[in-house]
């Protein structure tokens, strides 16, 4: 007897998160993966997305496509970050509904929470205070995605779920010298300093802010776990107006500790200094992951283990990483 397989569309499959989800799903015998690169499907075009869904016979969607970047990129391209993310998520979520896709997972970001939210940050902190100004446009776009999913569930009975990961890193990350997040930026800079024999690496900010980091393979495993929960189990741990779930390790460290760990992983033996003229961003951002743990999942990749994996990927893909 032939096994009936679910046709699952992973939007953004070439990105760090999307590629990790593809790796997770590829080992499932009951899954038929559907992917399209940007040359085959323009996610910014509603007509193109509608045409795709009208013929692809999609059963489930993982919405991992997004425009992402670090503090520098968010500061310099705020219009791009809010506009492009709003358009992509509206096109995909709207088309999924119009063409009868009952299950969808939207991947957000922990930047949705207020800058001074009580730590660790619970899901019900959403919309209770001001956002971090440096990435407010991107955060608002992600909040809109959560609310799109909630609204289609309430009005149309869809099963559209949302997960909010903490700071992610790993293979296929963006190592752009200006627009990347903190881990790939530091891995690149410390590697370059080691190769060049530099005596010092200067890190943005005071080094005091605390951050939580999650390896992307853990994020992908959590995403599949949440998506495969039966409806009654998922609903028992969420609410109609609070349907997103935090994904993280539940452990954080200072940027100074992160930089020192990266220096050790890379093998840089010079001095690590901190440029206090640069912004720190949010002072602390640690997620409360108790809801996810109660649903039967927790992270398994340690920070140093994950950093070694990310660094190994970068060293073996330097040319590719440079053109992101």
Automatic annotation (TrEMBL):
InterPro entries: Epimerase_deHydtase, GDP_fucose/colitose_synth, NAD(P)-bd_dom_sf. It catalyses: GDP-beta-L-fucose + NADP(+) = GDP-4-dehydro-alpha-D-rhamnose + NADPH + H(+). Its EC number is 1.1.1.271. The keyword Isomerase applies. It is an enzyme of class 1 (oxidoreductase). Pfam families: Epimerase. The keyword Oxidoreductase applies. Residues 8-229 form the NAD-dependent epimerase/dehydratase domain. Substrate binds at residues 189, 204, 211, 280. NADP(+) binds at residues 12-18, 107-110, 142, 165-168, 181. It comes from the Bacteria. Catalyzes the two-step NADP-dependent conversion of GDP-4-dehydro-6-deoxy-D-mannose to GDP-fucose, involving an epimerase and a reductase reaction. This is GDP-L-fucose synthase. The lineage of its organism: Bacteria, Pseudomonadati, Pseudomonadota, Gammaproteobacteria, Oceanospirillales.
């Amino acid at each position: 007897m032939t096994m009936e397989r679910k046709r699952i569309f992973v939007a953004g499959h070439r990105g760090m998160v999307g590629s990790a989800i593809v790796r997770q799903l590829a080992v499932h015998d009951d899954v038929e993966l559907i992917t399209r690169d940007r040359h085959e499907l323009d996610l910014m075009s509603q007509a193109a997305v509608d045409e795709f869904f009208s013929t692809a016979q999609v059963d489930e969607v993982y919405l991992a496509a997004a425009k992402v970047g670090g503090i520098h990129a968010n500061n310099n391209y705020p219009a791009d970050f809010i506009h492009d993310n709003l358009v992509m998520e509206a096109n995909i979520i709207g088309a999924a509904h119009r063409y009868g896709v009952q299950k969808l997972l939207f991947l957000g970001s922990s930047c949705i929470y207020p800058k001074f939210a009580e730590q660790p940050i619970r899901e019900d902190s959403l919309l209770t205070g001001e956002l971090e100004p440096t990435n407010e446009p991107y955060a608002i776009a992600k909040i809109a995605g959560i609310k799109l999913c909630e609204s289609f569930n309430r009005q149309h009975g869809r099963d559209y779920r949302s997960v909010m990961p903490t700071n992610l890193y790993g293979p296929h990350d963006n190592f752009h010298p200006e627009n990347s997040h903190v881990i790939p930026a530091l891995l690149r800079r410390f590697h370059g300093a080691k190769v060049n024999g530099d005596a010092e690496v200067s890190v943005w900010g005071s080094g005091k802010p605390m951050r939580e980091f999650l390896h992307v393979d853990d994020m992908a495993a959590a995403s599949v776990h949440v998506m495969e929960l039966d409806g009654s189990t998922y609903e028992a741990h969420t609410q109609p107006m609070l349907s997103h779930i935090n994904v993280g390790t539940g452990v954080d460290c200072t940027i100074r500790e992160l930089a020192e760990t990266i220096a050790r992983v890379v093998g840089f033996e010079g001095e690590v200094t901190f440029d206090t003229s640069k912004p720190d961003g949010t002072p602390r951002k640690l997620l409360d992951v108790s809801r996810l743990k109660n649903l039967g999942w927790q992270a398994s990749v340690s920070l140093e283990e994950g950093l070694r994996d990310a660094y190994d990927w970068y060293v073996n893909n330097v040319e590719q990483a440079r053109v992101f």
